[in-house]
Amino acid sequence: MADPVWLADVLRAEGVETVEYPGWLDRGHGDFGQITHVMAHHTGGDASPRSIAEHPELGLSSQIHLARNGVATVVGAGIAWHAGPGDWPGIPTDDANRVSIGIEAENSGTEGWSAAQYWAYVKVCAAICRRLGLGADRVIGHKEWAGRSQGKWDPGGMDMDAFRQDIQQQINRGPTPPAVNQIDEVQKVAGFWLGERETPGEMVCGSDGAGRYAKFRAGYIYWHPRFGAHAVNMRIFEYWAGLN
Fold first, then answer.
1. Which of 38, 65, 87, 163 registers the highest number of CB atoms within 10 A of its CB?
2. Average pLDDT over residues 201-205
């Protein structure tokens, strides 16, 4: 095994908006051997990626910062000081830093978990586990590791068993394929005669409000969820208008 230099790639592939903190690939307290677990934390309040990457006392204090809006920032690839003393089956006593990836979610622990942050948390853990060939049972809370030894209670307000169930479902389901914009796909085929696009995005159309269209120099592309996307030459409109 080696340092998880693949973190940013697998998070993006899972559909998580991901930022790479400057210098993250070279940041850490030594190199990993075998990574066997993922540890979930909360920050206890407002915290920036920098505060996790460059903690004034701990240096790198987790590999990932997860903002309230669900954006993940990868801040380090080496070992991080995030776990402290504790124990859990399958992890050497007081030695979780060496075998686990830490995730610090920006949360007080009492404010609750927004859908954006919670499901990003699920996807982050699932992406890491899938890459390492691990099941969701290898995701533990800091409170499970260090509750007895340190009195830790993070991530607060989170049912870890339910969290692991959601992670396992995400692992089994796999990454969500990116949505395909059918108007853009039709433009790839018909663009040679449609010409330049004149609307920056799509406009709403249809009596049900579910349709969309985009205008081009020589025509339009219309889309509706029931009928798909179709290109219409401007000359058809001109002929139709000529017939009143």
1. 65
2. 88
